[in-house]
Specification:
Transmembrane segments: 12-31, 37-57, 64-84, 90-110
Number of strands: 0
Mean pLDDT: 93
Distance between the termini: 29 Å
Keywords: Membrane, Transmembrane, Transmembrane helix
């Protein structure tokens, strides 16, 4: 089981770099789409993007989707976004925290929705 977690974690770290690219595009669109940008509206718009990413995570990661969402989020936003590539350095700390927490929450919502939908069809 630990070997599976290590293998999956390395895939999640790689995916987190690509997640950062999509998140950065969604973030720019969310901010540019507002006349007077607000952190709450920006988080709401990027949450829609995270719901789509959460769907992909729950579709392809069958063993640990919640852990995958957390790892992808932390490595994508904090690891690659703030430290390695510094693409998200100019944004506020509150927005960075919100973006980091958003993907695990979106993955949880998508997973619960899929489980309820699956149980209704049974």
């Amino acid at each position: 089981m630990t070997k599976q977690v290590v293998i999956h974690s390395s895939l999640w770290v790689i995916f987190s770099f690509f997640y950062l690219s999509g998140l950065q595009a969604a973030l720019v669109l969310a901010i540019d789409g507002q006349e007077y940008p607000s952190i709450w509206i920006t988080l709401l718009y990027t949450f829609a993007f995270n719901l789509l990413v959460g769907h992909i995570i729950t579709k392809y990661e069958k063993l640990f989707p919640m852990i995958a969402g957390a790892v992808i989020s932390v490595f994508g936003v904090v690891g690659f976004g703030c430290y390695f590539t510094e693409r998200l350095v100019g944004y506020s700390s509150e927005l960075i925290i919100g973006l980091t927490l958003s993907l695990p929450f979106a993955t949880f919502i998508v997973r619960e929705f899929k489980q309820k939908s699956y149980s209704k069809t049974q």
